[in-house]
Amino acid sequence: KEKTLAMIKPDGLLGNYTDEVKNVIINSGFIIFKEMILQLDEDRAASFYAEHSLKSFFPNLIKYMTSGPVLVMILEKENAVADWRALIGPTDSKKAKITHPHSIRALCGIDSEKNCVHGSDSPQSAQREISFFFQEESAE
Ligand code: ATP
After folding, report:
1. How far is the CA of 133 from the centre of ligand 1 (A)?
2. What residues sit in the active site (predicted)?
3. What is the per-residue pLDDT across 2-42, written as a single tens digit (0 to 9) for each?
4. Which member of 18, 33, 90, 110 lies 3.0 to 4.6 Å from 76 by CB, making a disulfide possible if both were Cys?
5. Is 105 annotated as a binding residue?
């Protein structure tokens, strides 16, 4: 079965959305294969989001992602990558509340930055992100 990397971001953990998000995960047929709470430092956050390093929002993104602990999970299910992306909804939580009211970002996100959760956007990203956090795992 396919694996993907899911993350509850600092606003999600601080807002006590962990149990609610995990219930959605389980009820949607995913298995939580591994999980870990960690605090990202600036270097690790910048390396995780390296593709955005030239964007204007990058400094704020790093502040946000290092503002508290995150919960990273390896989720397993057939079609896990695409299904988890569909479940979390669009990047901008404000828009998600209108266009995808049942999405996780509509449930616990605030705006286009503080959007509560992350999901790998392709099987290649999933592989990279899973080994980024869980050295011993591969996405296969
Ligand atoms: P993620 O990669 O976290 O799952 P995503 O793929 O939906 O999110 P990206 O475009 O990859 O969105 O942006 C990465 C993260 O950067 C977003 O989740 C959000 O926290 C932040 N971000 C994106 N766009 C903006 C913006 N315009 N202003 C502030 N923060 C933003």
Report:
1. 19
2. 118
3. 999 999 999 999 999 999 999 999 999 999 999 999 999 99
4. 33
5. yes
